[in-house]
Amino acid sequence: xxxxxxxxxxxxxxxxxxxxxxxxxxxxxxxxxxxxxxxxxxxxxxxxxxxxxxxxxxxxxxxxxxxxxxxxxxxxxxxxxxxxxxxxxxxxxxxxxxxxxxxxxxxxxxxxxxxxxxxxxxxxx
Length: 125
Known about the structure:
Distance between the termini: 40 Å
Number of helices: 0
Largest sheet: 7 strands, mixed
Mean pLDDT: 96
């Protein structure tokens, strides 16, 4: 049974940093992309970042480029997103996902097969 378990969310102030973790288990993720998406109340699910499990190639949504960094630890089967210079508009539930989207569609959430339960990030002004 595939499990993606997010952790690390919380309440922070604008300008602070936070690191989210996604522990993956239940299968090998070789050949998969591991992604982070977020969803704020009343808004559509938004692509944050993704990383190719094998090559380590990374991809970012426009709203987080230069502030967020995605990484992975293959030995721990864990993916991270380090978030710097957080803004109130970063407030959302953050989800970890695994899938095999083609590179041009790495930000399309319905191409990801496995999802975590989400972790809340709240940034106060």
